[in-house]
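Dear Dr. V.,

Thank you for agreeing to look over these. As mentioned in my earlier message, I'm a first-year student in the group and I'm still getting used to reading structure tokens, so any feedback on how I've presented them would be very welcome. I ran two proteins. I've put each sequence directly above its structure. The first is here:
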Amino acid sequence: MITVVGTGVSAAPADVLAGAGLVVGGRRHLDAAGVPPGVERVVLGPLAPALDVIERHLDKGSRVVVLASGDPGFFGIVRVLAERFGAGALDVRPGVSSVAAAFARVGVPWDDAVVVSAHGRDLRTAVNVCRARPKVAVLTGPGAGPAELGAALASGGAERGGWAGAAASGLVAQFPAPLKRVLLVASELGTRDERVERVTPAEAAGRDWGSAVSVVLCLDESRALGGVRTVAGPPPGPPQWALEEGEFAHRDSMITKFEVRALALARLGPRLGDLVWDVGAGSGSVAVECARLGAAVVAVEKAADGVERIRANADAHGVDVQVVHGSAPDALAGLDDPDAVFVGGGGRELPGIVAACARRARRSVVVAMAALDRVPTVRSALTEAGFGCEGVLLQSSRLAPLPGDVTRLAATNPVFLLWGVRNPVYQEGVAL
């Protein structure tokens, strides 16, 4: 039997160690536990060697104790141990997780929080979740701590260095406003040196936090409390998508029709942890729908009244959309690379914009256009960037009432929808 003890915010009970042949854990856990003399100790580093030692002790019938932080079944070592030795071999005694402790310290309920791990993982997922959700707990790690998280959130994507040059040349009229987020950095939880510090993302970016950080809470404090919940976790997805045009403020019917939007959303596949660009956003209907489905979204729009309209539509639907006031492709230079891109419009610059988006998109690019003449060049822009390209002409007729309680079919304008999906063996313009 392997006894897994979560020590986190409390000490390991002495009776658990009695009779153990092997105690495994981090150095600070082992030092604090008071391991009896003569008991073998393994300091956790790489997991594979430690698992091999555990297996040798189990083969001899020796009892093993593993010391972990907080709740070892929550982003912890229980998964690894169960995969190797089977769940039936584990006696798990959880402590209070760092996430639960951090929320408790600040008096905020967390049944509706999103928890994301950046420990040993790409930070971009955590950043995009923080952009999209008002209550997030981030489990940090080396190179993915409060400073790095704060820098990404504070910059609005400016870490690529493109904003300064674009703004200086007059190509970008407005920097994307940072989202309303505060970081609560919890360090040394469960010790006498425990502290929780409230900082802005910019303040977090300018500090050296060391290695004592337990967890970072990223909150929109105006929405941190939430309402009464029935199901734990982030709010469920929207009951509908491809909303009626009347659900959005727009000008002169300049909005992606819901039939087109439905297929575009299906091909974009927006989800929590993704970053989506809506380029030539117009009313921002696609941007808002992607945000409703959980993605972090940047909308790029060159018309000043369009920028305000996008913000109003995002507010009306209760989602966060960062808006860039500027013209593509120059306005794209300072943004983080997206997972998926939607491009609307049909001017002469469209193929160049699509090519610029395709060079940056990690997964897919979807383009809507009315002009047949643009289809070949847009298709070429996608295929030359290493995307497999498909498309369809969407023509729909909606039921419309006529006098006398009868109905006619009202045709909508036909729209070409092209989508490119990145070939997994094509990277940075080089066919492998």
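The second protein is here, in the same arrangement:
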Amino acid sequence: MADVGGSGLVLLAVATAALCAWMLPPLTFLAPGPLALALTAVDVRRSAAVLLR
């Protein structure tokens, strides 16, 4: 777990998706949105860290 901030971001996205799916079952199909956004952000953070070295 080299990127603690990125791991926290993904964990929060999973919690947000689960909460949205629990509160509004008809909108469960939207749950992958926050997950995709968080995973993309972590990938961009990792790429930026490599470029800054």
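From my reading of the second output: The mean pLDDT is 84. The two ends are 19 Å apart (CA to CA). Does that match how you would interpret it?

Kind regards,
E.
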